[in-house]
Write a structure and sequence with these properties.
Shape: elongated
Helix content: over 70%
Protein name: chorismate mutase
Radius of gyration: 18 Å
EC number: 5.4.99.5
Strand content: under 5%
Structural class: mainly alpha
Organism: Compostibacter hankyongensis
Number of domains: 1
Mean pLDDT: 83
Number of strands: 0
Keywords: Isomerase, Signal
CATH superfamily: Chorismate mutase
Largest sheet: none
CATH topology: Chorismate Mutase Domain, subunit A
Distance between the termini: 20 Å
Pfam family, one: CM_2
Low-confidence stretches: none
């Protein structure tokens, strides 16, 4: 099951990346015909939608983890694991030209939501 989620998430990420590269070509073409701003905004909306969907998929996994941890009496907060995720995310963000501060803020927000979901998952 873990492998299934991993490949589904990886596939979704790959799809988002492919769509992004196709949209980048669209942006260049639209600069020439005067629709650059409108087209760019539509592409941002599309990427934002994909990001929300991807985070939603992530939180589905978190719900399953929350139920597992509750069954095994494991605390929701695993600080070492979060630090590992944060370090990996900062490294990936750097490759994408994103600042470590932004990545920390983003991952902290996602982590807080994940902890809330894990805690709520234990109520089932």
């Amino acid at each position: 099951m873990k492998t299934k989620w991993y490949y589904s998430a990886a596939g979704l990420i790959l799809l988002c990346l492919l769509q992004g590269s196709l949209h980048a070509q669209d942006v260049r073409a639209d600069k020439d015909n005067g629709n650059f701003l409108e087209s760019s905004r539509m592409q941002i909306d599309s990427v934002d939608h994909a990001l929300i969907q991807l985070i939603g998929r992530r939180e589905d996994i978190v719900r399953a983890i929350g139920r597992y941890k509750a069954e095994k009496h494991i605390a929701p907060l695993q600080k070492a694991r979060f630090n590992e995720v944060l370090e990996q995310s900062i490294a990936e963000g750097k490759k994408a030209g994103l600042s470590p501060e932004f990545i920390k803020t983003l991952m902290n927000a996602i982590h807080e939501e994940s902890l809330r979901i894990e805690r709520d998952s234990t109520a089932y």
